[in-house]
Specification:
This is Alpha/beta hydrolase. Residues 31-262 form the AB hydrolase-1 domain. Belongs to the peptidase S33 family. The chain has 282 residues and is an alpha/beta fold. It is built from ten helices and ten strands. The strands form two sheets. It has an eight-stranded mixed beta sheet with strand order 1-2-6-5-7-8-9-10, sandwiched between helices. A two-stranded antiparallel sheet has the order 3-4. Strand 7, helix 2 (107-118) and strand 8 form a beta-alpha-beta unit. Helix 1 (81-95) packs across helix 2 (107-118) and helix 3 packs across helix 4. The model has no long low-confidence stretch (mean pLDDT 95).
Length: 282
């Protein structure tokens, strides 16, 4: 279904599981887990079917960011982190969701970090999964070289310094397979995922080059779980540690997954989903 979040924009939304369930003589409301997918330019398909295993404890809300996937197309200049963060609140208002649990994966984690800054009182909890607070190119290049040699480092440097169709070809061939250890995953892309490369190149070449999300994390007013893979080349482990250091110490929890790459719930699903489940249930 498509949900109107502003006069000129609808977001594609899909729901897994009931929000209200029988509990003895009454009905019990489960928490809402709102999933912010990676990208930019991709859709929510990479979350499926993995996150269905949490539908027994939470109602799962999948959606495609503004302009992405099955959501309405919008002008590129409108697609900023501020707008995406505002859409989280707009979508919750439209669906009648209060105090959601937010999970942002990769680019979705950028959106979640900006949302923490702008709307710190809005969520019940936030999960930041395989994400970064800034471009951090030097760290990216070091991990790509460690995992894929100089060819991967060179392809990564060319793409991140000048995102375009030309530099994307080598990056997708050489670097994307290094994102994850899972055989069907290629970063945030699985074979069924749709990709709008115009959005990808515009964001990666403009806002991502200058973003710094660390200062806003100090405004967090709820528990935040940070998940990171030891072998993540595009959102390196040290980026996650910077996020942890910037969050209020009494709110933050951190889990490092050794031997895992980008999206620890892909590479170590049992351990990762068990950790997410524990956080939701706390």
């Amino acid at each position: 279904m498509r949900i109107q979040v502003s006069p000129d924009a609808r977001l594609f939304v899909d729901v897994d599981g009931s929000g209200l369930v029988p509990d003895g003589a009454g009905m019990r409301e489960k928490p809402t887990l709102l999933l912010l997918h990676g990208g930019p330019g991709y859709d929510h398909a990479g979350f499926k079917p993995g996150f269905s295993r949490l539908a027994d404890i939470a109602q799962i809300i999948y959606y495609d960011h503004r302009g992405h996937g099955r959501s309405d197309r919008r002008p590129i200049e409108e697609l900023t982190l501020d707008t995406y963060a505002e859409d989280v609140v707009r979508l919750c208002d439209a669906l009648g969701i209060t105090k959601p649990i937010l999970l942002g994966q990769s680019f979705g984690g950028f959106v979640a970090q900006r949302y923490i800054d702008k709307y710190p009182e809005h969520p019940a909890k936030v999960i930041l999964s395989s994400t970064s607070p800034s471009l951090g190119l030097a760290r990216k290049l070091a991990v790509f070289e460690r995992l894929g040699g100089t060819e991967a480092r060179d392809a990564a440097e060319q793409f991140w310094r000048s995102p375009s169709e030309t530099t994307w070809v080598a990056y997708q061939r050489v670097c994307k397979p290094l994102y994850s250890q899972a055989p069907l995953a290629c970063g945030d892309v699985v074979p069924r995922t749709t990709v709008n490369k115009d959005i990808l190149f515009a964001f990666a070449g403009e806002e991502q080059q200058i973003m710094n999300l660390l200062p806003g994390l100090a405004r967090a007013q709820c528990p935040v779980l940070v998940l990171a893979g030891e072998l993540d080349p595009v959102c390196p482990l040290e980026d996650a540690k910077d996020i942890v250091a910037a969050l209020p110490a009494h709110f933050v929890q951190f889990e490092q997954f050794d031997g895992c790459g980008h999206g620890v719930w892909r590479d170590a699903p049992d351990a990762a989903f068990a950790r997410i489940r524990r956080f939701i249930n706390e």
